[in-house]
Amino acid sequence: MVGCLILGAGALAVPLSAEQAQAESGAGKADAVAATAADGAWQTNLEKAQQLAKDENKALLVLFTGSDWCPPCMMMDEKVFSKAEFAEQASEQFVLLKLDMPREDPQNIGEVNEKLMMKYKVTAVPTVLLLDAEGKEFKRFSAGEYPDIKGFVEYIGRQYRRKDME
Q1: Does the reported pTM lie above 0.85?
Q2: N or C, which terminus of the chain has less Cβ within 10 Å?
Q3: What's the domain count of the chain?
Q4: What is the pLDDT of residues 26-76, one digit of tens each?
Q5: Domain limits at 127?
């Protein structure tokens, strides 16, 4: 399991800008267009995401991430979370919620999301929680455990089916 440990408002990680990550990954313009489409599938507010989950009779997939400083988070975003294929498949059963703790944070979203990290006792990123529409957790795991779309979608699908058995 690879992740970035969160210590209060700081983190133990090698800083890597989004530009450096994109340059090192070789991501092209087509990837950027697909990423923009996938980004539209992600909610950023827990209350709104919960209401949407209730309205659509879905569970929540909550991603805690450090988008501009956590190398495993950036890798998972590049390989899985930014892909339209992932958003389409995962959205069949889940409302997608991304809670980011960026270093470059002009809107102070990290402050709000850090409170949610404390509420759900998340200590490292990238962490994924699967919640019912009421916010009750039924599974948690490190996003880095499933570094491709197929494996990730299969895993969350199994967990979704198991939630009613427990």
Answers
A1: no
A2: C
A3: 1
A4: 444 444 444 444 678 999 999 999 999 999 999 999 999 999 999 999 999
A5: 23-145
